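I'd like us to work through together how a protein chain folds, taking it slowly. To get us started, please write out a protein record for me. Label the sequence line and the structure token line clearly, so we can match residues to local backbone shapes. Once you have written the record down, we can walk along the chain together.
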Amino acid sequence: MRPKHTQHPLPSFPVYACAFLTPNEFVLGGGGGASRSGIKNKLRLYSVNDSRAIELKDEYELEKGEDAPMSMAAHQETGTIVCGVNSVQEKLDKGENDNCRAFSIKDNKIRPTSTRSTLPGAGKSDDYQKVTVLSPSGSILAVAGSNDLHLLSFPSLESIAEPIHTEREIYDVAFINDAVILATTHNLFVYTLPDSVSSTTTATDTPSSPRPPKKKSKLNPNGGTQKLPTLELKTRVDLPDSTAEGSSFRAIRCHPNDESAVYTAINAVTPRSKKSKGPSRQAFVVKWNTKTWTVEKTRKVGDRGLTCFDISADGRFLAFGSSDLSVGMLDARTLSPLVSILKAFEFPPTFVKFNPTTSLLVSGSADNSLRVVTIPQEVAGTSFAFVLFMLLAVVFLLLAIATKQYGVKLL
């Protein structure tokens, strides 16, 4: 596949998060962070046309001293995005942090709607909301900092289960069937969602107005408090033996149409050898069978660590960004390489994101730029391996016909 792609400079706007609202509209989150760099932290709404040109529709400037949005998810039916933004230092010192924030996008305008505090510890400004994921139904929102996962109802942002604390660092979260998968440095933890959690809210609800953080327990009709359900650990998955020593999970995505397929991005650092000047770095994409939690396929995709990962809405493609500054795409069925854009950025990519119709792939970086890739529809969903198989089948068919008609002997 030889896709066309266009790079767009975004002056004074390092980007870290992206979410599509429609096939041709997306929101970017970025800025200079909480430091006094002079670069403002913003949310920006863009449209993109068929020729990959982008147009700025609106921007929302965050309060001075707040952090840049570092993770983001979109609820397309209601035109809502949720992102992680740390509050100003004065609030953090008081133990207040409205880190989980919802915004409505209507008439090309970005408007704040509600907030929620999920990060623990007064004044702990080094932690941030690194994971923001909506369930496929849009009714459950998973947000996580370095070591704590919270499940919230959407759009109310009320807690619907006891938080999960992990000893190792959290990197990603994914929903599959009636479970939530937590990806930490060395393990995948599969938690069963209680029936009460799955039915707390529906995807057709509308965003609520701003409200203060909720407590972990809520009042029941008879007075007192009702304890939140505790998630049950169903399965713990270790790193696969096929990956290099020193590996760690970096991201996880579930196949949208096949509950038995889950994909993980794994980074590895092997010990320094006598012949090498330093540790060897490698990156892998692994396909898992969730019925047995065994590895079905493994593909080495580079000699540097992966920084971002995504799966298309139709489940046909995987995309990744690497710390070697490249962006790549794989066939989700075979893990065969389809696209490799070398030196796509000056800094490592911070996100890769497919649009809802799998016609575009957008990636961004802290180097103040965005790249839009057009996925050719004439080959979309067709891997190189499949094309090669078909060509070989045609060749053998022609040889068989020649043998029958002309008596040609095949060696």
